[in-house]
Design brief:
Chain lengths: 121, 172
């Protein structure tokens, strides 16, 4: 099966965005991932070996946390496992940069007149 | 590029992306909008964003001051980005009637190290300042937001390259 590695963790996975593994279960797949790239372990798991709260693991379109057998769920070669850190936030007390007079780059946005890239509309 | 410019990382957005994320914030006002930024890394550290993908704000209980993208939606966005040879390079959201500065909530709930968090202030329904912050550091323990310089890249000289993206050698 394929494991999709999210952008922030690729630096600990030799720059790879995907790893092909041979595993029977979700936890077997994660084991092979962290055996291949040991630096990933502490980013995915707590000291007690549980998935960190903000790390979501999806087997195809299903959150592994809500599968009846969770990480013991069987997987097949055609499955994909996505690792997705959570995304949330909101206003509140502005944090700023901690350095006086800094942080408002929006006021000085630099316009580049060159065409660097073309995207299909 | 001078040493002074290198001190702050760049986030390059196409004009279309820049306008789209600001328009999104105006549309959802007085609620927060949110979405993902797709692009490629430039020389390992900066991002060049070529697409913004709108996401639903799942915090319908408190949408005026909170945002959250469902992981299920993010999985789909990521899969489609891969198909196009792009990566999730960051996220954007709006601050209705609030400065375009990250909040303690934004910081506590930011986990995409090396990615950009773009915030647009929307004052009385009108997008004003847009700022970008790089989530720097290597772990949850030493992470920090660093302000980034936003560069809006004009794309009015279309170069219908078949790869979808073409670099110009003179750009640096
Ligand atoms: Zn925010």
């Amino acid at each position: 099966m394929k494991i999709f590695i999210p952008t922030p963790l690729r630096v600990y996975a030799a720059g790879k965005d995907t790893l092909e593994v041979n595993a029977a279960t979700v936890s077997g797949a994660l084991d092979e991932l962290t055996r291949t790239f040991p630096d990933l372990r502490k980013h995915l798991f707590t000291g007690e070996g549980k998935l960190r709260a903000f790390v979501n693991v999806y087997l195809n379109d299903e959150d592994v946390r809500y599968l009846p057998q969770k990480e013991a769920t069987a997987v097949s070669a055609a499955d994909t496992l996505s690792i997705i850190p959570s995304i949330a936030g909101g206003t509140g007390r502005p944090g700023g940069t901690g350095r006086p007079g800094e942080g408002a780059f929006g006021a000085a946005v630099k316009i580049r007149p060159k065409c660097l890239i073309h995207i299909e509309e | 590029m001078s040493a002074l410019q290198r001190a702050v990382s760049d986030l390059r957005l196409t004009r279309a992306v820049y306008e789209a994320i600001r328009a999104h914030g105006e549309e959802t006002y007085p609620h927060e909008c949110c979405g993902a930024l797709l692009g490629n890394s430039v020389q390992g550290s900066s991002w060049r964003i070529v697409a913004a993908v709108r996401a639903g704000n799942t915090r319908t209980d408190s949408a005026h001051n909170r945002y959250q993208i469902s992981p299920a939606e993010l999985v789909k966005i990521e899969r489609e980005a891969r198909r196009d040879g792009l990566s999730i390079a960051g996220f954007y959201h709006s601050h209705p009637d609030h400065p375009a500065q990250w909040s303690q909530t934004d910081f506590a709930e930011a986990h995409w190290l090396g990615c950009s968090y773009v915030i647009t202030a929307v004052d009385l329904g009108k997008a004003t300042v847009t700022n970008s912050f790089l989530l720097a550091g290597t772990t949850e323990e030493d992470k920090r937001f660093e302000p980034q310089k936003i560069e809006v890249v004009e794309t009015d000289e279309p170069t219908r390259a078949s790869s979808g993206a073409r670099l110009e050698s003179k750009e640096a």
